[in-house]
Amino acid sequence: MNENDNKENGAQDVSRRDFLKKLGVGSVATTAAISASIAGVASMSGCRSDKEAVPHSTKFCDVPAGQMSYRTQPRTGDRVSLLGYGCMRWPQHKNADGEDVIHQEAVNEMVDYAIAHGVNFFDVAPPYIRGLAEPATGIALERHPRDKFFVATKLSTHRGDPSVRTFEGSKAIYEKSFENLRVDYIDYYFLHCVGIGGMEALKARFYDNGILDFLVKEREAGKIRHLGWSFHGDIEAFDFLLAQQEVPWDFVMIQMNYIDWQNASGWNTNAEYLMGELEKRKIPVIIMEPLLGGRLARLNSKALNVLKSVNPEASAASWALRYAGTPESVLTVLSGMTYIEHLKENICTFSPLVPLTPKEYAALDEVTKIMISSDYVQCTECEYCMPCPYGVDIPGVFSHYNKMVSTGYRLKSSNDENYKKIRKAFLVSYDRSIPRIRQADKCIDCGICVKSCPQGIKIPDEMRRIDLYAEQLKQRMDF
Question: What pLDDT digit, counting tens, does each position of 127-151 carry?
């Protein structure tokens, strides 16, 4: 990336500088540490001027055009970009009333840049960004010829008023998506979050009310080009849907990354099993959470050193994305790219994709052992837990804490080296990034959020743990 790239694409509004401001970094020490972590996310892994198939480096250069890797959808022959755009993290800013709204101009610029560099799969859902993501995505995509993109959205009936799970309520969600996205057909339509609530919820949401029969007919009529589902939760629901012969599935979305391959937590099932079952049936796989909500782009120093011993210039993010994209059964890998740096790096990683080698798989096995024994909260910042009825910024609190862990700012003892500096950095940046009325101490343990967390995090327990840690720092108590 060079200055001209930044200016030509209006990236000023989504620059790394703005990213740091949004983090509310408090001290010079914290800024430097978090900047180093962010550099691992936003560095240009993969830019090169030649076409040699070698792993990407983090050197800044022009983002390649015309080299995107594609996979073919077997039923229709669609050539789908291996990098898919996850639209649940569009950039936001304050409007005149001080409300957080989607920055439409920035979204348009990101979509324009993505399409110009070969990205053609855009995934969204009605509840993303408080219901704002679907209309924003539609506005941005409408400016391009319809044959230049595939748009995916979902029947999200797992949240909110139970009336949305009726046939009429579900049909209304479906029809609203056409209006929001400004299209007359949807390329990839999902039953959203299959497995949440187990078999009882699956049958009530999609079978008993007749909505699945309706969607199958919509596919036959061409209003839906591909019909599938995304999975979180009860493995019985996953196995049940794969066993059904009445509805041939065009794709399935699963959570897959090198941590979840054999160490899935919460509601998730090991991706090794999920991939194996889908590959047996030759069902194309769409990957979500390849970076675990950004956590695999913010490795701690011990884990990062393992990767740098193999490839000193590749970013942590590029390793995780290559892991997700290497299996031939994968149709596309979704990444929620808020900033232009993220988009450019990821385009480089997939232009073209260089599959992982056995040596690289071994390195990621070692990193996995380090990461699962670390102090992270397993949050992917999906915001399904929000809004909290008591105002707690749940994903914000977890994000701040995890950034401290990844940058080595999680103290273990008051005798730790640089205790005073790290203590100040944590507390100042906590207050600046999360308003005090929305911090962990405001959690009353009502447990409402737990039911909505796809990662199965015991959110009140983690809030108490983080609040205790913050209080120990405030009071200069030992741990």
Answer: 999 999 999 999 999 999 999 999 9
Give CA–CA dist 99/278, Å, rounded.
43
Helix (H, G, I), strand (E, B) or coil at 152: strand
Q: How many angstroms separate the CA atoms of 291 and 347, rounded?
A: 15
Residue 223, class by beta-carbon neighbours within 10 Å (0-12 exposed, 13-18 middle, 19+ buried)? Answer: middle
Q: What is the DSSP string of 17-46?
A: HHHHHHHT--SHHHHHHHHHHHHHHHS-TT
Per the listing, tokens 């910042």 go with: 381
How far apart CA 422 and CA 260 sit, in angstroms, is: 31
CA angle 323, 110, 452 (to 5 degrees): 60
CB 332 within 8 A of CB 320: no
Bridge partners of 155, per DSSP, are 191
Instruction: State which amino acid sits at residue 358.
Output: P
Give the H or E element holding residue 425: helix 419-433
Q: Is the pLDDT of residue 47 over 80?
A: no
pTM: 0.76
In this structure, are residues 321 and 335 in contact, taking their beta carbons and an 8 Å threshold? yes
Q: Are the beta carbons of 137 and 110 closer than 8 angstroms?
A: no
How many angstroms from the chain centroid is the CA of residue 334? 7
Asked if 237 and 193 count as a contact pair (C-beta separation under 8 A), the reply is no
Both structure tokens of 413: 């003892």
- 242 CB neighbour count, 10 Å cutoff: 15
Q: Summarize the chain as % helix, strand, coil (round to 5).
A: 50, 10, 40
Burial class of residue 94, CB neighbours in 10 A (0-12, 13-18, 19+):
exposed
Retrieve residue 31's tokens.
């800024």
